[in-house]
Amino acid sequence: MPTFLFLYGAAFAVVHFFARFQLVFKLHYIGLCLLCIPRMYKYYIQTKDVAAKRLAKLWVLTLTLGTLCWLVDRIFCKKLSHWYVNPQGHAWWHVLMGLNSYYANTFLMFCRAQQRGWEPRITHLLGFLPYVKVQKPEKRE
User: Where are the domains of the chain?
Assistant: First the structure.
């Protein structure tokens, strides 16, 4: 499945580069986001780790805030562009969705390490950037 997803993503990127279909790209992105929700919820209810649950909550928060920023920017673009300071909703969407992808992948790495019995824990780089640290069991020969 990972190979298929990689090839599908690469093919979609190439076709989108040449065809520039805006609506299909947006619908495709929304569909992929919606496909992630059931799996993330399943893992969220299965894990007992508070720090991992916090990552999942940050995933939902950044997804929601990013979507709101994008929608406000799209709907009120003409009004916002006349303000003295433009809030740059689309730019904030990119920042928040980047964080969203990071939180989702970090949470899924934690869940996968937990499934493999590697004793994962969430630690923070520089006190704020979460990452997964695993303690693999020693191999017995």
Answer: 1-46, 50-141
pTM above 0.85, yes or no: no
Query: Does the annotation flag 94 for ligand binding?
Result: yes
Contact 33, 63 (CB under 8 A): yes
d(CA 60, CA 65): 9
- Does 90 count as an annotated binding residue? yes
The DSSP call for residue 76 is S
pLDDT for 74-102, tens place per residue? 888 888 778 888 788 889 999 999 999 99
Identity of residue 32: L
